[in-house]
Amino acid sequence: MPSEIEQCIGGAASAAAAEEVVLPAVNLMGKYEMGRLLGRGAFAKVYYARNVRTGQGVAIKAVSKQKVVKGGFMAHVKREVAIMRRLRHPNIVRLFEVLATRTKIYFVMEFAKGGELFAKVAKGRFSEDLCRRYFQQLVSAVGYCHSRGVFHRDLKPENLLLDENWGLRVSDFGLSAVRDQVRADGLLHTLCGTPAYVAPEILAKRGYDGARVDVWSCGVILFVLNAGYLPFNDPNLMVMYRKIYKGEFRCPKWTSPELRRFLSRLLDTNPETRITVDEILSDPWFRKEYKEIKFTEEDDFDAKDFLEDGNSANKYLNAFDIISFSSGFDLSGLICDSGEPVRSERFASAEAPERVLERVEQVAAGEEGVSVARGKGHVLRVEGRSGELVAAVRVRRLTADLLVVEVKWGDVSGRGIWKDKLRPQLDDLVYQPGEPVSGDS
Description:
Helix content is 34%, strand content 19%. The protein has helices at residues 4-9, 12-19, 65-70, 74-86, 117-121, 128-147, 200-204, 210-227, 237-246, 257-266, 277-282, 284-287, 303-307, 319-325, 332-336, 353-365, 412-422, and strands spanning 27-28, 32-40, 44-51, 57-64, 95-100, 104-110, 115-116, 150-151, 160-162, 168-170, 177-178, 344-349, 371-374, 379-383, 389-397, 403-409. The longest helix is centred in the N-terminal third of the chain and has 20 residues, at 128-147. Belongs to the protein kinase superfamily. CAMK Ser/Thr protein kinase family. SNF1 subfamily.
């Protein structure tokens, strides 16, 4: 028997999977085979692609550097990268990595096979139980963002995607703000968002709380899922804005009294009395059949892939890898300019791979509370007292005589242990330009 979700939004994932065509021979940096165009925006196009090594389907957003610079969107792109790197939640589209060439920046992201939630609700309203189920997932993701100082500011059904299991995925953080952008008055002031979903305090142009405007947008989304149409709508934009500012909306007749009450709290035009995320989590309508979404948050870098890259020291880096190490193409600056701390470093070494790994092990052995576990191939896992990951160390072949040693850490404490305690004792491994390497005459 089909589930309620399948009955209501019908076969989207399987249909999307069936639309995946045989990919042409377009290869991105030897890592991804590019496929069909999924969508386009002002300065970006999104493609379906497949990871060459794992076969995993991904979505790749290709951003034109020229258009970004000319349009003055560089800070906008930097912020989006920084925000997506810090978010690891089952209901948020995941950013796997960022790549770059001379002309483009590529966001490699999770591919949501089910498509946009907007396309499903456009075919007809959802049952109240299904509305609740998706709203619970949405609030879990939004609350997670707020707890990490991120405010989406453009929540709408078009930015909510569905995976192959009908789970919700929040996407498109291009208009998001971070807590660092809050002014001295404690408010944000940038005017942004989609007209029908924008909160009244944004229209007032006196500053707004990012968390409270996200709650308003969530309320509009819930109304749309239940009604099948917008609560505030008019062909005349100014008339629609007046309706939003006054909070003029009517629930359809099939709306339960409990949901009517809940919507009135979400769409409260006074941000000071509007329901908060914490209050939403305690609301009786919301809590019905609520199962708290539990997950284990991963490190900001993909430690698993990093540590399991088995014979990396025996694989020569390709041209794109070498380009990415140069200052002109290294994206660490792109990420860190938005306030995100550097969480990796690289240095060249003329030593043999085993010599490098042995020295790291030797240095770690002399530090209290630090141990080392060998990974597959030329990789090490530096661990703390409780087995938590302090840093991951990987050795890769640059030339016949030189290696690149890459180190990534997951948090501030990991950085402190590596930078302050371990790294200063490894200067003998670092290759200095001009010094002889093995094989030099």
